[in-house]
Amino acid sequence: SQTIYLKDYTPPSHLVDSVELVFKLHPTQTRVISKIAFRPNPDAADPTFYLHGEQLKLIRASIDGQDANAKVTDLGLTAQAPDAPFLWEAEVEISPATNTALEGLYMSNGMYCTQCEAEGFRKITYYPDRPDVMAVFTVKIEGEEPVKLSNGNDLGDGTWHDPHPKPAYLFALVAGDLVNLHDTFTTRSGRKVDLNIYVRDGDLHKTPFGMDALKRSMTWDEEVYGREYDLDLFNIVAVDDFNMGAMENKGLNIFNSAAVLASPDTATDGNFHRIETIIAHEYFHNWTGNRITCRDWFQLCLKEGLTVFRDQQFSGDTRGHAVERISDVLQLRARQFREDNGPLAHPVRPESFVEINNFYTATVYEKGAEVIGMLKTLIGDADYYEGCDLYFTRHDGQACTIEDWLKCFEDVTGRDLAQFKLWYSQAGTPRVKVDESFHDGTYTLTFIQSTPPTPGQDTKDPKVIPIAVGLLNEAGEEIHATKVCEVTDEVHKFRFTGLEAKPVPSINRNFSAPIILERDQSNAERAFLLAHDTDPFNKWEAGRALARDVMVRMVTEDATPDQAYLDALVAVARDDTLEPGFKAMCFSGPSNDDIQQALVDGGVTPDPTRIFLTGQTLNLAISQTMQDLLPRIYAEMQVDGPYSPRSEDADRRFWGNAALAMLSRLDGGAQAAAQYASADNMTQQLAALGCLLRAEVGEAQNAAFYAQWKDDRLVIDKWFSMQVSHAKLAAAPAKAAELTAHPDFTMANPNRFRAVFGALAGNSAGFHEPGGSGYALLADWLIKLDAKNPQIAARMSTAFETWPRYDADRQGMMREALTRIQAAPGLSPDLSEMVNRILA
Ligand code: HT7
Ligand code: ZN
User: Fold this and answer.
1) pTM greater than 0.90 (yes/no)
2) Residue 219: predicted pLDDT
3) Which atom of ligand 1 is nearest to the CA of 281?
4) Four-CA torsion 690, 694, 697, 700, nearest 10 degrees
C-alpha cells in the first residue's frame, strides 16, 4: 500500500458526462452493467485513461463498441482511449453476501445496501472513483425485492435518475423487503418534497422522531443558512450492519439503525439527542458536501468540519446553547485533544495518508468544526453568513478546496486569512499561558502561545487565536463585557483600562478557541467563577477545573476531598436560577482520561487504577455531602405524564438520575431498584440498571433486562455495553471476554462489536488493568476482526494511542499488543497504517 500526498494532486484525465448503471441483483453473483460517457479533461496532467476497481470480476469491457483490451490489476485498469468523447461499456460481477467489510455493495439481514464513501464505489464497478469527477447518474435495479431505491427521482420499475451531478462516493442503492413512514415537507419556495424513512417490518413505530428531526432540520437550514432542498424526494433507510453513524448519499441517506430508530421504551434521552444530531448532520450535507463537494480527500474537513459546526449550531438552537457547548467541548477534549496530543496527531487538513478511512477522525470533524467557529468569532456573524452565501453561489456544483472556502471570507471581509489558515495545516493543541498584572487602573493580560511538536512537525508558527475575555469585580458583577482578544503573536498583551481594582478574568469564554489554557489560578478563584461567571460555559469550566485540581491532589498527594469543592457543589445544587441540565453537567466530574491528561501536563505518570479508586472516594464524599438534598432533588426531577424526548424533560431526568447515582452510593441501590421496577422508558430503566451494576447488586435486573429485550438488537447492544463499562478494574476485560462467548455476540455487526470493545476501551481502569488482560484481549479481537472488517478494526485500534503516557510496565504490554497486531499475517493496510503510526 502506498502513501498518497496532498502535494501530488493532479486533475483527472477524463471527465464523465453521464453514467447508466444496471444492477442484476444476486447475493453472490450480482451483475453490474455500466455505460459511461467520458471525455478527455482539457486540464489533465496525464491523459492516460485509468479506472479504479477492486474485488471485481470483469466480464466484458468496450470503448465505443470495440473490445477495450483493458489491462487489469488488483486496484484498477487502463485502456487505450480515443482523444475525444467516447462511450465506455462494461459488465462486472460482485458478491454482496460475502462482503463483510461493509464497503461497496453488501447485504445486511437479507437487504442489499451500499456504502461508497470514501472509496467504496470502486468495489461496485470500474470508475474514476475520486470526488472531483462529478456526473449525472441513471440507475436500473433488477431483482425480486419489493423496494428498490437509488439516488434522485423515482422513474418507476426500479429505475432512478439523479439530475444533480455527483461524485461516485454519494452513489447509493438499497433493495429489500422494507416498509416506510411517509411525510411531506414544503420548502419556502413551494417545492413539495416527499419524505420517507424505510425500515424492516416491525420497526415503523421507531421512525416518527427521526421524521420530525428531519423536518426541523430542513426548516432550520432554510432559516439560518438560506438553504433549500433541491429534489422532490428525500429517503432515509435504516440498516443494521453499518460501519459508522450514517451516510449523506444524494437523496438517499443510509443510516445505521442505531442512529435513526428510537422509541421511548427502547431509546434513551441520549439516543434521541444523538439521532437528532445525525439526521441534521446528514441533511445539512446536502449543501455542505453534496452540492459543493471536496476536490480530493485531503479536503475532507471542508465538508465535515463545516457540517459538524452546522449540526452543533442546530442542536444549540434546539436544546439550549450552554449545555450543548459544554457537551461539544467534553467530546472535543475526550477525543480530539487525546488524538492531538498523541502519536496519531495530524492537521485538520492532513498532508498524506495510506488509507483515507483512517482520517475520518475527531481532528477532521471536531477540530474542523472548531476552526469554523473561530472564523465566525473573528469576522462576526454578518460577515460569516455573507461569506457562506458567497461560497454557495460561487462554488455550487463544484469540487472545492479549503483555499476556495477561505477566499470567500477574504473577499467579503477584505481580511488576509493566511495566518488563520495555519489552523488547517498545523497539528497539535496550542497551549496558551496567561500572565496578568494590574497597575493604576490598567489590567494587562499577556498571552504566550506555543504548540508542542507533533509527528512530522517539530516547530510551529504562532496562530491567530480568538480568546473571548470578560471581567468581573470582587462582588461578582460583570465590569467588562465579553471582548474577543485576537492573539496573533507568540507573546501578545491586551489592556483593560479605567478599572477600580484588580478584576477577576473569565478567559476563553464559550471555549472560543480549542486550546489548553495554562494559568495559575487558585481554587478560591475557581469557586468564585463557578458561583458568579455570567458566561455559562466558563461557569461550568471553573467547576470542572476545581474538580480536576481536587482529584489531582488526591491522586498525587493523598489529599482528602476538598471541602471548598464540596461546598461549591452544594451551592450549585441549591441554586434555583440554574437549569437542571446545567446542574447535572456540573456534577458529572472529570473523566478518568481527563485526569490522566491533567497529570501528564503536570509531568506525572498517570495510574488509571489509582485514579479510578480516588474517583470512588471523591464520589462517595460528594454523595455524603449531598445526602440531605438528594431525596428532594430526586423527587422534584421526576417527570409526570407520557415520555417525551424534549430537552426540558430530558434535562430533568439527567439531573434526577445524577441524584440517583449519588443516592445509590449511600443506600446500596434501594432507590435504583425501585426506579428499575417502575421505569416506563429506557432512560429511567437504563440509568437505574447502571446504578445497580455499579453497586454490584444488579444481577437480577441484568438478567431480567436481557429476558425483556432479547429480541431488540439495539437494546441488547446496550446490555452488552453496560456490563463492560460498569465492571471494575480487571473484571472489565474478564466480562468482555465472557460476553464474546455469548450466543448473541457477533463480529459481523459493528454495533455489537463496539458495544463490547468500545465499552472496554472506554473503561479506563479496566482496559489498563495492571495485568495487561485488557490489552491482550483487544489485540486478539482486533486481529480477528481485521480479516472481516478492516475499517472498524483500524478505528478501534486507537484505544492504544495513549501508550506513551503510562509507566514502563503498561507501555511494554501495550507495545507488545501492538507489535503482535503488526505481525499478524495478512494484516489490512487500514490496521497496519494505524499500528505503524501509533508505534512510530
Ligand atoms: N460522510 C460520512 C462519512 C463516512 C462513512 C459513513 C458510513 C460508513 C462509512 C463511512 N466512511 C465515511 C458520514 C458523515 O460524516 O456524515
Ligand atoms: Zn459528515
Assistant:
1) yes
2) 99
3) 16
4) 30
